[in-house]
Amino acid sequence: MKIRINGNSLRIRLSQTEIKTLVHQGEISSVCQFINDRLVYTLKQGDYPQLTADFIQGVITIYIPQSLVQHWDKNETIGFDGKDTSGLYILIEKDFQCLKPRQHEDESDLYTHPQSTVSSHD
Q: Do the strands 52-56 and 59-65 form a parallel or antiparallel pair, or are they unpaired?
């Protein structure tokens, strides 16, 4: 799971396995370890009225309405976005392979880029 923070926006990209985990188990987390602390970022799907996020004690939790992720592992939906009540913009999307492969980067679990001529991993 990749996270990008830019101003008042969060962008999360998920691999195929991560999306399957989110869809079928309801939650996925990742950790970025620093010398003196760590940042945890978690996605939870459930009976939430809208896409929202909070940040408590070093943990970013993004709450996703179940209707947005239902069957996401099997459909063509790239992602979804929204602003929560604080004005935070949240974008969650499938992670695609780069059009030009990068040396030393494992993209085997990423989705085939829509502009690629190679077939999907599914």
A: antiparallel
Cβ neighbours around 1 below 10 Å, total: 19
Q: Report how many domains make up the chain.
A: 1
CATH code of 43's domain: 3.30.1360
Read off the pLDDT of residues 38-67 as tens digits, 9 standing for 90 and up.
Answer: 999 999 999 999 999 999 999 999 999 999
Query: CB of 80 within 8 A of CB of 23?
Result: no
Which stretches of the chain are DSSP H helices? Answer: 16-25, 66-69
Residue 62 lies in a domain: yes
| pLDDT score of 104 more than 80 | no
Whole-model pTM: value is 0.80
Residue-range definition of the domain harbouring residue 11? 2-94
Q: Cα separation of 18 and 12, whole Å?
A: 11
